Amino acid sequence: MSSLEPETYLSLEKKPKTVTKAEPPISLEKKRQNTDSDDPALPQIDAAHLPKSFQPPLSEGPDALEFLKDIREASDHGKLTSTYIDHDIPYYCGAFFKSGGERLHALYEFPYRAAFPPFLPAFFINALSCEGDIVHDPFGGSGTVAIEAARTGRIAYSSDINPLAKMITVPRIGPEVTLEAVDQALATVDWEKGEAAPLDLSDAFFHPRTAFKLQVLRRWLELNISLEGSEADPIAAWIFMVVLARLTGHSQGYMSGYTLPPNQATTVARQRRINAKRGETPPEKDVRSIILKKTASLLRHGMPPFNSNHRIEVGPASDTPWIESESV
């Protein structure tokens, strides 16, 4: 049996939709003036009704119960919040933020499979934390939460079992990077006669000259950055991140010939079939130019203010001894 009052909540059963006359949305401010409403879609919840597993934050800051009250009363985006309980967990269903109409910050323009829009973490970060608070994402992925936390003056903590997550997140919340600094760094690479790293790049994806330039760049990166992402020159780390973003893809802005989008993968044999079907071989690409163009695009809205307390780690979500208890 639920410790909550099930009769005060909407049923879990699906009900047939009824056609009603459209009414203007109730603003959050207007709804706050009607807190005594008997609307069954807005059940009254207080601390005594919450499951024991849900507790307000222990630290000073936004109050969790006040946040729940705001959620229950929200209808700013045209949908009144409905609430139901499943296995003693209250669910709040409504429209709490808009994912469209506002342009994404340029730093989010990074190919990564199943990345969610930053509007979602932004909603909770702004509602449940204050500037200077630590915000932790235990499944860091492409770094959406970490970047949004950094952009809003929070301290970004993030971890992921995939080392790639750290490689592509740290440069975007690290010390400021400029297009000029990236250009100067790339000018030190001997693209024509430099030492090449033993990097296997199939001619099914890359023109031989493009592959050689990437091998030279890989060797240059090895001398300037720990490719495991622990210690790095910020500019070299940025360049490595951009290369990962533009290595293979299906437009002229990638270093490969035409292939699947960058958040997908294919085999060499299948890529050869793609090339044969299109009647083409990978053209030579200007690696330096591609890196600079993508850098300019990512930096067009600037970078978040740097905070040396940001921490991005590699490891499972169940093992984060570097986070102090009750600090997040």
Describe what you observe in this structure.
With 328 residues, this protein is mainly alpha-helical. The chain has three domains: 6-93, no CATH class; 106-173 and 305-314, Rossmann fold, CATH 3.40.50; 179-298, no CATH class. It has ten helices and five strands; from the N terminus they run ααββαβαβααααααβ. It has a three-stranded parallel beta sheet, covered by helices on one side. α5 crosses α8, α6 packs antiparallel against α10 (287-298) and α8 (234-246) crosses α10 (287-298). Residues 1-59 have low confidence and may be disordered.
For this entry, give a set of tags.
Rossmann fold; mainly alpha; 3-stranded parallel sheet; 328 residues; two-stranded antiparallel ribbon
What amount of the residues lies in strands? 5-15%
The largest sheet is: 3 strands, parallel
Mean pLDDT: 80
Given helix and strand content, the structural type is mainly alpha
Strand order of the largest sheet: 3-4-5
Parts with pLDDT < 50 across at least 5 consecutive residues: 1-59
Short description:
The chain has 3 domains: 6-93, no CATH class; 106-173 and 305-314, Vaccinia Virus protein VP39 (Rossmann fold, 3-Layer(aba) Sandwich), CATH 3.40.50; 179-298, no CATH class. The protein is 32% helix and 7% strand.
